[in-house]
Write a structure and sequence with these properties.
Elements: H1 3-8, H2 26-37, H3 42-51, H4 60-65, H5 82-102
């Protein structure tokens, strides 16, 4: 039941780059499964994943839900430029939110416009 959401949220237990080390993301996966099984209201499901840690007196469960924001690929390669990868990580989270919650893609607008794209490069 949750596999579609886990796919679009780019769930993975590895870093995703050439070093591809293991990381512990299964607690977030288990939270998603539990939220589906409890039929959690959609607005809570989304709010907790995007900003559960910012809610007043956030519970451990609400903080765990924000694992959604940490599913992106992570590099630990020596010599990387920290700011370059910080921007890559933000772009990945932005693109994932736009695809999963808004139902549109924004990747093309990072570099160029297409005639019928809903978001232009200038807007992104």
């Amino acid at each position: 039941m949750t596999s579609s959401w886990l796919d679009v949220a780019r769930y993975s237990d590895t870093h995703g780059y050439q070093d591809d080390l293991e990381r512990t993301m299964w607690p977030w996966r288990d939270w998603v499964i539990s939220a589906f099984n409890r039929n959690m209201p959609y607005n809570d499901f989304v709010t907790w994943q995007l900003a559960g840690d910012l809610l007043p007196e956030a519970t451990l469960e609400q903080i765990l839900a924000t694992g959604f924001n940490r599913n992106h690929k992570i590099t630990q390669e020596g010599g990387v430029i920290d700011e370059e990868y910080r921007v890559e990580y933000v772009l990945d989270r932005t693109n994932t939110v736009s695809k999963s919650l808004l139902g549109l893609t924004m990747e093309c607008a990072q570099c160029h416009d297409h005639k019928y794209d809903p978001i232009s490069q200038k807007e992104s």
